[in-house]
Amino acid sequence: MAATKAESPTLAEVKKWPATVNVPRAALALGCSRSQLYELIKRGEAPVRTLSFGSRHVVITNSLVALLEAT
């Protein structure tokens, strides 16, 4: 039976990710929706470091790992 919802990655899996990841993938690791994370980025309140390229945003994986390790 196929899962209908993607499961959150483990910390070990996140540590193997590339240097940056897209917002939906980071949101999955954080356990929030992508729209919530996009809103936090827009307001400058994201709990992780991001880079913006015009309207495109990416999350810096090291900051995501640091946050997950702190919780």
Explain this structure to me?
The chain starts with 10 loop residues before the first helix and ends with a helix. It has a three-stranded antiparallel β-sheet with strand order 1-3-2. The longest helix is centred in the middle third of the chain and has 10 residues, at 34-43. The chain is built from four helices and three strands. The chain has helices at 11-15, 23-30, 34-43, 61-70; strands spanning 20-22, 50-53, 56-60. Strand 2 (50-53) and strand 3 form a beta hairpin. Helix 2 (23-30) packs across helix 3 (34-43). The mean pLDDT is 93. It has 71 residues and is α+β, with helices and mostly antiparallel strands.
Keywords:
single chain; 71 residues; alpha+beta; three-stranded antiparallel sheet; 3 strands
Question: Strands, helices and their partners?
Answer:
Elements: H1 11-15, E1 20-22, H2 23-30, H3 34-43, E2 50-53, E3 56-60, H4 61-70
Antiparallel strand pairs: 1-3, 2-3
Helix pairs in contact: 2-3
How would you summarize this macromolecular structure in one to three sentences?
The chain has 71 residues and is α+β, with helices and mostly antiparallel strands. 46% of the residues lie in helices and 17% in strands.
